[in-house]
Amino acid sequence: EVQLVESGGGSVQAGGSLRPSCTVSGFTFDDYTIGWFRQAPGKEREGVSCRSSRDSSTFYAYSVEGRFTISSDNAKNTVYLQMNSLEPEDTAVYYCAASDYDGPDYCVYSRMNYWGKGTLVTVSS
I want to staple 70 with a disulfide (CB 3.0 to 4.6 A). Which of 49, 75, 96, 108 is the partner? Predict the structure, then answer.
């Protein structure tokens, strides 16, 4: 059974940092595109950062590039999202997701096949 389990969300003040993690099981980690999405109340779920299975290239949403960094420990089947300089606008439920798609535009909601249940990140001013 494919499972993705997030942890490490929380509540921080603006300017703070968090590093949620996502541990996956049920498939070969290196064969899947994996990344992070987020959804704020009343908004669509959006891709935050993903790593492609094809060439290990990475994608960052414009709003987080330079502040967030995606990384992984393949031996542990775990992906991380280092979030620095957090802003109130980053407040959302953050979801880990995976896909067997290896083409372009790989960090979009419709491409993802498997989802975790999410971890809440709250940033106060």
Answer: 49
Strand pairing report for 10-13 and 119-124: parallel
Residue pointed to by tokens 């492609």:
52
Strand partners, 15: none
Contact 71, 78 (CB under 8 A): no
The pLDDT, as a whole number, for residue 67 is: 98
pLDDT higher than 90, residue 1:
no
Count of beta carbons in the 10 Å neighbourhood of residue 76 = 11
How big is the CA angle at 102 (ends 100 and 106), to the nearest 5 degrees?
Answer: 95
Amino acid, single-letter form, for residue 102: D
DSSP-derived pairing of the beta strands 92-99 and 33-39: antiparallel
3-state percent helix, strand, coil for the chain, nearest multiple of 5: 10, 50, 40
Q: What is the DSSP letter of 41?
A: T
pLDDT in tens, 22-81: 999 998 888 899 999 999 999 999 999 999 999 999 999 999 999 999 999 989 999 999
